[in-house]
């Protein structure tokens, strides 16, 4: 598995949970230079049947950064996220137009295996979805389907992943207990650990904190900052404070309504460094959204 | 309490009203419905135990079947027990894997394509086929060419079990939440992996109890066996050839006989069959509990 090693961003001291209301961009300013392009999308439109959910999205996602997708409901940010690792293939009738390149390789070329794509590009979902298996088996699931059989190696992976997800100390004495017995925040960290266990290159997160309380949210945000030096993260969030707290770049999506044909579609309005999106947005729609006058 | 209620300005007591009456009526009706359901079951159990328990003994369970005129203390139902176990086991081996695979196809692979729709529809139709018709069907395509055998009976029972297994497995697979499938796909699993390592384990408890219900149902079937296995009086260990017998067939033939001894043995056989079905249910419970260890 490919491991990004270069361009490790200097980790800043992360804000303590007390700073939850802090709207200062965290460490966006530190990562002054842009890393390698992990994703390049060009004029991507996504359809569900005849409904065009998203139109003409072009953006670049950089290595070892946290990129946030924000925007009102129905603007297609989750759709775009799920397009990056071909999760939308599972939706009957979903179709992608335009180019999605992952490190130079077209994700939607006919000979590309969605399975191979997803092994490199992991995903964490909105609702924690641990398997009805033990905590250990939840984490070992990914390595096992990739052919890892050795107990010692699996033990090592389970411990490393749970440590990365800041869950090890809480569960190390009950690894054989059901993953469903965990609290919401723990279950979500378990899902993150499960994703990290296969050592993906990119971690996509679809509103990972929307079902969690502020303390669990802070724990997950800490975790994201911790693992950023090794992974590239894309996160969809409804919480603008969260975007400002964790992300380096922010993409603002909005809904474009066509009055004549009475259709609507999601568009990418503005994509920039997070501090610019929140402090000097170029588009009036972005400004209206981030200041709370819309959406 | 009444004092407190009188002193307080707010009245928290529920006012006597039509709503309260409706609630009472509904509760009473529900209890009544439950009792009504239990009564026939209780009667059946009571009668079978009362009439069958006295005859049960080790020699009754293992001896060969005597002629109908024999008194109650002669012979037993050994061949019928062996036959029921052989035939039902063979039918299970044929129908359960096939049914589970069929349901997996319907739910995980077929989706809404025409083949899946057709199979789903045909399996529903098959559920409605009377069991005696299934027996006739096997009689005409198998027994007429190869003769009576436990195998023919197993075919007939398997045909009856198949749609039940397909339907119950399908329902269980539908209950597996999609986020679990997505989680597995997102880790790079292929469809077959997702099915084998996530979907089936998550549904296994329901699948097993559905299959065992189908087994219990098949074990109690008489009609499909009438033209497929006949009845015999000695144990036939070879399920693949030669006539055989089963508990339901034996109950049927004994119950229609005018001799007191045969009827008593029929009651004994009925009790034995109920006990076998009961054991299967208990096993189903245990298996379910074993498999759902991680589901909460």
What does this structure look like?
The complex is a heterodimer of chains A (295) and B (296). Chain A has 10 helices and 10 strands. Chain A has 295 residues and is of the alpha/beta class. Chain A has a domain at 36-129 and 203-290: Rossmann fold (3-Layer(aba) Sandwich), CATH 3.40.50.300. In chain A, a hairpin with a 4-residue loop joins β9 (249-258) and β10. In chain A, α3 (135-145) packs across α4, α3 (135-145) packs parallel to α6 (184-196) and α6 runs parallel beside α7 (214-227). Chain B is mostly helical and 296 residues long. Chain B has 2 domains: 16-55; 59-291, MetI-like fold (Orthogonal Bundle), CATH 1.10.3720.10. Chain B is built from 12 helices and no strands. Classes of the chains: A alpha/beta (295), B mainly alpha (296).
Quick recap:
The complex is a heterodimer of chains A (295) and B (296). In chain A, 31% of the residues lie in helices and 25% in strands.
Tally of DSSP helical segments of chain B: 12
Amount of helix of chain B: over 70%
As for the CATH topology of one domain in chain A, it is Rossmann fold
Structural class of chain A: alpha/beta
Count the E strands of chain B: 0
Assembly context of the chains: heterodimer
Strand content of chain B: under 5%
CATH architect. name of one domain in chain A? 3-Layer(aba) Sandwich
Strand order of the largest sheet of chain A: 5-4-1-2-10-9-3-8-7-6
User: Class of the largest domain in chain B in CATH?
Assistant: Mainly Alpha
CATH first level of one domain in chain A = Alpha Beta
